[in-house]
Write a structure and sequence with these properties.
heterodimer; A: mainly beta; six-stranded mixed β-sheet; five-stranded antiparallel β-sheet; B: mainly beta; seven-stranded mixed β-sheet
């Protein structure tokens, strides 16, 4: 089956720093979606990408859909304490989403 | 516009009992998806349903698990004769359109099997 490699597994940064995480796959996806999950809650959609090469921003978040359609990255600029959580990438083929294992982000005030 | 609703949020069952998990999609969404999440793992696709139809159940175990999305009422994920390995968080997502790919998730049901 399709698999996503998400890195890094965890990050511990200082407030104000920029963060970058990425996902790679051996399979091609039609969409890339980035979600954030807080403890005990469901994933919340942050950014959706639909075309190869697309670069999309949502506030301090920026994500790109790789040209090869096999990878994507998410950047968070000027991190704040409420950015803490687990970030998941997911690749979409029609209706089925394949998720990475997540990046645990800790922000030190 | 309420989001995806799931209940119960927490469910405890003993081995051999049945678990019923309910999901009400966002208003206007006719596509429902169920995912399972084990601790420190990503979500794994289980099943995709539209009203009264199962479109893809390739991610669902062949035995003991079933899902439905009736014409009226919520979608139900049913697990019969639960075992300890069924303990996980089960998430439901909905979308207005299967093509665009955006799925919006509910808060999940945490199932614990004793």
């Amino acid at each position: 089956g399709q698999q996503l490699n998400q890195s890094p597994q965890s990050m511990f940064i200082q407030e104000g720093e920029d963060v970058s995480m990425n996902c790679t796959s051996s399979s091609i996806f039609n969409t890339w979606l980035w979600y954030k999950q807080d403890p005990g809650e469901g994933p919340v959609l942050l950014i959706a990408l639909y075309k190869a090469g697309e670069l999309t921003s949502n506030g301090r978040l920026t994500a790109q859909f790789g040209i090869t359609r096999k990878d994507s990255f998410l950047n968070i600029s000027a991190s704040i304490p409420s950015d803490v959580g687990i970030y998941f990438c997911s690749g979409g083929s029609n209706y089925k989403l394949t998720f990475g294992k997540g990046t645990l982000l800790t922000v030190n005030p | 516009n309420a989001g995806v609703m799931q209940n119960p949020r927490h469910l405890v069952r003993r081995r051999g009992q049945e678990a019923r998990l309910r999901c009400s999609p966002m208003k206007g969404h006719s596509h429902v998806y169920w995912y399972r999440q084990l601790p420190e793992e990503g979500l794994k696709f289980m099943v995709y349903l539209q009203k009264e139809n199962i479109i893809d159940e390739s991610g669902m175990p062949k035995e003991r698990f079933s899902a439905e999305f009736p014409k009226e009422g919520p979608s139900i994920l049913r697990i019969q004769q639960v075992v300890r390995g069924d303990s996980a968080a089960y998430f439901c997502a909905s979308s207005p359109d299967r093509v665009l790919g955006e799925q919006f998730f509910g808060p999940g049901t945490r199932l614990t099997v004793l």
